[in-house]
Design a protein that fits this description.
Elements (H helix, E strand, L loop, with lengths): L6 E5 L6 H12 L2 E4 L18 H6 L2 E2 L12 H17 L4 E4 L3 H9 L9 H8 L3 H11 L1 H6 L5 H14 L3 H5 L12 E7 L2 H17 L2 H10 L14 H8 L5 H23 L5 E5 L4 H13 L2
Parallel strand pairs: 1-4, 1-5, 2-3, 2-4, 5-6
Helix pairs in contact: 1-14, 3-4, 5-8, 6-8, 10-13, 11-12, 12-13
Length: about 300
């Protein structure tokens, strides 16, 4: 049995088999699973976020799935607060814990700390506060497109903070949020493994999974969200595939066009995830194509190693 004092972290791009491996290991070890995923927190967004099935959730205790309504915002700070509580509770009960999911920023923040940035500058804030949201957003898009893509034009507080940090440091907030010292030990005792796939193999898996999700009722899931009368929150709307299916349901494109755009967006997401994941120190990489049984044995061996 693995040492329950060490969390097993399973990393990998979307469609790499993280959840299946986590569930197989939980069955072998009695572990619980912490979802480190910014989209699986949302209720009603099940198929498109690749949540474990209801049967799997009943069999194995999963944490931080179905936590908020899809019209609510959810932040990395909120995730860390909740996840710290989960880690403490699971440790208190002496159960092994597996952390897996598709949001590298959440892993970084939970295990290596949030980026706080420099202190506030009242003069800069006052000057920026005189500008409207569209202007603030346009300025941010010029210096930090990645941050502008995440921050809505109506979110003046975050826009001003991002611009303030750039003026104070000369660096985009997105680059500072993704940087950390690789010599820093994780805040929680942990063993890190990653699932590696060759690009063409992973792309094939992504395309097949999108097809399976559509067959499983993803379009109906999005239609139900629209019928609820509550628009997706700024953060929920970032979930890959949902905006494309909304466009289809609103008659703006065909289903075939929407599906193709989802495949492209998912492959782009996988590339972004891997750029993040490669920065994490001490990851033991396992080949994803060796089969479920071998992957489980290899991961268990890594978790049990001294």
């Amino acid at each position: 049995m693995p040492d329950s004092s060490r969390i097993l972290v399973i990393l990998g791009p979307t469609a790499s088999g993280k959840s299946a491996l986590a569930i197989a290991l939980a069955r072998r070890t009695g572990a619980e699973i912490l979802s480190v995923d910014s989209m699986q927190v949302y209720q009603g967004m099940n198929i498109g976020t690749a949540k474990p099935s209801l049967a799997e959730q009943h069999e194995i205790r999963h944490h931080l799935i179905n936590w908020v309504r899809p019209d609510e915002d959810f932040s990395v700070a909120r995730f860390c607060e909740l996840a710290e509580g989960v880690i403490a509770d699971v440790a208190r009960r002496g159960r092994p814990l597996i952390a897996t999911g598709g949001t590298p920023l959440y892993f970084k923040s939970l295990f290596f700390g949030l980026f706080d940035g420099p202190g506030a500058d009242p003069a800069i804030r006052q000057r920026l506060g005189e500008l409207d949201g569209a202007t603030l957003h346009s300025r941010l898009a010029e210096i930090d497109p990645a941050a502008a893509a995440r921050i809505h034009a109506a979110d003046r507080k975050r826009l001003i903070r991002a611009l303030e940090i750039y003026e104070l440091t000369g660096k985009p907030i997105s680059s500072l949020q993704t940087h950390w010292d690789n010599s820093t030990a994780p805040r929680h005792p942990s063993v890190w493994i990653g699932l590696h796939w060759e690009k063409e193999e992973l792309n094939h898996r992504i395309n097949a999974r999108v097809k399976d999700m559509i067959a499983a009722g993803w379009v109906e899931e999005v239609a139900e969200l629209l019928r609820s009368g509550r628009p997706l929150s700024r953060t929920a709307a970032e979930a890959t595939g949902y905006s494309q299916l909304v466009a289809y349901l609103q008659g703006k494109c065909s289903l075939e066009e929407a599906v193709e755009q989802i495949k492209i967006a998912t492959r782009q997401l996988a590339r972004r995830q891997m750029k993040w994941i490669r920065r994490f120190p001490g990851v033991t990489w396992l080949e994803g194509n060796v089969g479920a049984q071998q992957s489980t044995e290899d991961a268990l061996k890594a978790w049990q190693a001294p």
